[in-house]
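User: Modeling request: complex.
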Amino acid sequence: MALEFEFSDEHKLFRRTLRDFMDEEIRPMIDNRFYESEEFPWEPVRAMSEQGLFGVPVPPEYGGAGLGEIGYGILLEEVSRVDTGLATIVGAHTGICLAPIYLFGTEEQRETYLPPLCRGENIGAFALTEPQAGSDAANIRTRAERDGDEYVINGTKIYVSNGDVADTIMVSAVTDPALGAKGGVTAFIVDTDTDGFHVSSKEDKMGIRRSTTAQIEFEDLRVPAENVLGNVGEGFIVALTALDGGRATLAAGSCGGAQEALNMALEYATAREQFGKPIAHHQDVQFRLAEMSTEITTMRYATYHCLDYVETYYEKVAAGEDVDKSFREKVSRRSAQVKVQASEMAAEVTEKACTIMGARGLQEGYNLEKGLRDAPIAEIYEGTNEIQRLVIGRELVQRGRYEW
Amino acid sequence: MVNIVVAVKHVPQQDNVRISKRTGKPLVDLAEGRMNPLGKKALETGLRLAQQDPNSEVTTLSLGPKEAEPTLRESLAMGADRALLVTDPLLEGSDGLGTAKALAAVVKQLGNVDIVLTGARTSDRYAGHVGPAMAAILGWEIATHGQSAKLTDEGIRFEKVLTSGTVATLTVDTPCLLSMGTHAPKPRHATTWGVHAAHETDALERWNLDDLGLAKDEVGPSAQATTQRSIEPVPEKERDTEAFTGDPDDVAESLPRRLASRGLLR
Ligand SMILES: Cc1cc2nc3c(=O)[nH]c(=O)nc-3n(C[C@H](O)[C@H](O)[C@H](O)COP(=O)(O)OP(=O)(O)OC[C@H]3O[C@@H](n4cnc5c(N)ncnc54)[C@H](O)[C@@H]3O)c2cc1C
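Assistant: Request completed. Predicted assembly structure:
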């Protein structure tokens, strides 16, 4: 049998309607206000949630669109074409808040939390990073102590995307300091209208300024024990499983950002004449464009192939089935690989586009300048590229041979 | 209860038709097709009419090969209640009249249809006669090139923009056929939930010629009323815009002379 690699009719229609929606309805809202302030962009977010973009991978029985991980990748790719900040909002909400609740939630948790999140009436967030625990996530100190039927949470989380507006936050906290990362961390679903929740500050970032990033505090915040997500002590399994898929969809987002940069450069290069002809007809410029398009194509193949694996993986996890260790490792490795490669490819393609566009590439108000600010972010969040390399390399060396 | 049928054609993505050098016929690539843009506006109009009456039903109907499925699925995703694809090898060789006969036959088979909506023309053929022919076959009232349609107690209030730019309002009795033109409202975007529901396996109904109650010699190549001798690109016209400025009275007075000197008045 030939190697089949084709989007389903459903995913094709989804991409087409999504692209039209983003270009016609959302793109006109992307103005220059973001230079002045980092306000949460309610207007596009409302429109996008009514369009059904806040619960794409979750099955319809929980209020989602049922388009799986491939659909979710398409979502981030197409949204990133228009604005990486908006993609980050949907990504933090979907990939690392909705997805773990769907994957590890009890029936009751799913029924309570998923429908309003899928409708975008509630916004989700994911809080793992702390001041002393960035790459070294195992070093988190936010503490959750059992008190009767409740847990009492105390601690500080930083760089929480959507943290200032979220209704529901997936929080990783230490339940057993003696065990630490090996069984001592638990995931909690926290409602932000609970006493003891505060947003202490908001970051002022260079890029993805439509996505807000907040520092949040828990002060004797009480959550009922039924808000433990997954098993007590398995918080890292919950977080890492969500990040396995998250990374691959981030890669899809990078592919979208890169396409936007290429298209801008292409439009400019065919319109701009120097030395008597459009610069696109100068060989160096054309070669650069060719390289950009080639890199995007290869990356899209690898990314969607990986997402196909993630989809199978998540179906099993959601159904409570055992996942083969080697399969889990493969998904994890692949998603780390595409995340590294796609984020660096997007940053490079954006820089090439800048070269082609000359002075316009750096000018405020031109979308490419926004692209230059936005592209590097994907190299940092959901595990820096160095940490991904560390994980890929460690596994490779342990195994002693290349594994596909 | 209002029963609405919208006829939508699956057309090639590109508007500029390429002609085969070998056969002289248009090359039709439906694999990457889309819903005829004016048909989509007709569907939007149908969905808005349906919103006026909670008991109404919107059925989309397409005559075409299997490749036309995405268009019908998109119509479901946008909010149609039923979608019907009529596929038959014989129908593929039909001209506009044959198509109109087949579509009218489906409408008769469905029964109790109050309103048929179509696009004023298709983006691939541009003939604009399928709708009117259907109305003639059904013996229904027709109003064409609409910008909007509303249910009222007197019938359907139909607005159209005339070439002069003014809006004409017509009242049309049902059953009727309405064709929608470029001024009709922008079609809604199918939601993500709609896209998924439209891909349930049994979301589409499939018919063939046997379901239409038509004899084989009524449609297909042998029943063609038109013959296409050749298709050639029309050379592009040169256009020019000139503004006459000055005192309005003077300009008006000199206008006949100026137009005549440019060969525009005789
Ligand atoms: C815009 C944005 C949004 C974010 N959203 C969220 C969110 O929603 N939720 C959340 O929990 N977190 C979020 N984060 C946090 C993000 O995951 C962390 O920034 C990331 O994990 C890196 O941590 P750090 O910034 O503390 O860097 P550090 O860990 O201090 O790393 C600094 C540098 O050292 C390198 N480094 C560290 N350790 C090693 C090592 N062992 N080997 C080699 N190199 C190493 C890193 O790769 C990096 O280059 C977000 C971050 C950003 C920028």
